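sry for the spam today, last one i promise. struct tokens for design, 481 residues
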């Protein structure tokens, strides 16, 4: 695993080397863990049993009840009550490391009431982690937390290897998966903006400025030179990305000349958006279990049951504590979300912390000012649920689908049809001469024909279709309902 350091992408020529070994560090600042919640649940259960026994009733929470019967309720609770405990957070962080190609050699979890301003974890824990890193021959110490410039500097001086925080890891994964020129520009901008306040002068390369003998330098420190060069590069990247946004606006204006609404897929990373995109469009975009496999937006046309055409957009996935620099840098990509008429929020129905994922997605949508858009909650991966969990999920208003098997996609297309407000579906009766073959072909291609009757040289049709298309046929004795 070659993590991007100091804003530079890893050398592709070294990808064949063995993965870097990493020590994972997770810090819990007062968040209840699964064990704590289980303990509280056990205490409530014991109290319920005591009350039932005093009343002479059979205990409602008998330990003889099979555990599997509680799974649908636990799943429903996970979908309704946000909260991600320390163990689940560490499991997600472990997936991030795997997506970056790393190998976890040790994991350290610490619980403390508040962060240490100097090292985040305290001097004693720093020594412990340094010993673990040395004994396991780790190349990296990864923190599932954002580190301030001071904390990062202090930790690097105390560790026998490099130290990276959560944002740096996510940026590296983005750098690995960026394929287009636009994606690479966005990632580089995010890396440089994150790196700029964390520049520190190290080693003899630093020029010295002062008033005594031997302290006079060439007039500018290496640190100041680096900052100036990085700032110039950031300004250039912003200009390049503005050019990308200008091209996208022109493309969007051309699309708007022909009224075709856009539907955007949004959701947590690895929720199955690209798989669902391929299922609905027949495309073959990359679908992977790794996080952030999709960075560049994809647009494909699909046909709804009403015969309306819409553009479906696949977008980058979101994640808990998504770095703000990424949201800013990927603004050009996420404009598809801002301009979409309907959002499909794809969620992992098999996840045990779906509500936390939903809350994080809505947080990013709020930053994009897209939270009030019409949104369809799509519960993906229902093929991984058992019968009871499916029944619990079926009682909700969400649309259950399986992008892998295709289950529920027809229901989803109908839900998209109902959610679209521009160019609504209207019913009409038409009388079209049989010699008007082009008109009849347009009706068959763009409308749903409910009834067709031949009367001499005329074709009597009862149809439903987009108002824009029906409006263009007013010459054929149109009578709208």
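last one done:
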């Amino acid at each position: 695993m070659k993590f991007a350091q100091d804003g530079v992408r890893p050398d592709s020529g070294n990808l064949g080397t063995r993965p870097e070994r990493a020590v994972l560090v997770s810090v819990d600042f007062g968040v209840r863990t699964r064990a704590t919640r289980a303990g509280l649940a056990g205490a409530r259960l014991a109290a319920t049993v005591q009350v039932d026994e005093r009343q002479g009733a059979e205990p409602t929470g008998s330990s003889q009840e099979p555990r599997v019967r509680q799974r649908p309720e636990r799943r429903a609770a996970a979908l309704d009550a946000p909260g991600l405990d320390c163990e689940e957070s560490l499991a997600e962080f472990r997936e991030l490391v795997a997506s970056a190609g790393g190998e976890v050699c040790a994991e350290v979890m610490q619980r403390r009431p508040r962060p240490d301003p100097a090292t985040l974890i305290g001097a004693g824990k720093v020594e412990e982690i340094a010993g673990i890193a040395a004994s396991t021959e780790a190349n990296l110490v990864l923190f599932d937390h954002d580190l301030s410039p001071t904390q990062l500097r202090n930790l690097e001086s105390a560790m026998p290897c490099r130290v990276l925080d959560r944002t740096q890891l996510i940026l590296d994964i983005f750098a690995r998966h960026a394929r287009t020129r636009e994606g690479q520009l966005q990632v580089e901008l995010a890396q440089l903006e994150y790196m700029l306040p964390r520049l520190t002068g190290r080693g003899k390369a630093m020029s010295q400025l002062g008033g005594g003998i031997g302290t006079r330098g060439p007039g500018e420190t290496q640190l100041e030179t680096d900052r100036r060069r990085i700032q110039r590069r950031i300004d250039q990247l912003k200009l390049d990305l503005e050019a990308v946004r200008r091209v996208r606006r022109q493309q969007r204006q051309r699309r708007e000349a022909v009224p075709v609404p856009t539907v955007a897929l949004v959701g947590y990373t690895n929720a199955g958006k690209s798989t669902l995109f391929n299922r609905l469009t027949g495309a073959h975009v990359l679908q992977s279990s790794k996080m952030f496999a999709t960075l560049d937006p994809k647009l494909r046309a699909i046909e709804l049951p009403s015969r309306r055409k819409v553009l479906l957009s696949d977008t980058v996935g979101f994640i808990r504590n998504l770095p703000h620099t990424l949201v800013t840098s990927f603004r050009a990509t996420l404009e598809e979300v801002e301009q979409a008429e309907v959002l499909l929020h794809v969620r992992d129905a098999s996840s045990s912390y779906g509500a936390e994922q939903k809350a994080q997605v809505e947080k990013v949508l709020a930053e994009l000012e897209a939270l009030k858009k019409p949104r369809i909650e799509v519960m993906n991966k229902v093929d991984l649920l058992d019968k009871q969990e499916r029944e619990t999920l079926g009682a909700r208003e969400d649309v259950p689908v399986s992008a892998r098997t295709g289950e529920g996609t027809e229901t989803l297309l109908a839900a998209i049809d109902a959610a679209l407000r521009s160019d609504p579906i209207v019913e009409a009766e038409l009388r079209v001469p049989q010699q008007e073959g082009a008109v009849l072909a347009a009706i068959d291609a763009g409308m749903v024909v409910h009834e067709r009757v031949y009367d001499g040289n005329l074709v009597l049709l009862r149809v439903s279709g987009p108002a824009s298309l029906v409006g263009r046929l007013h010459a054929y004795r149109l009578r709208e309902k």
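The chain has four domains: 12-31+83-170, 178-201+220-258, 260-419, 425-480. ok im logging off now
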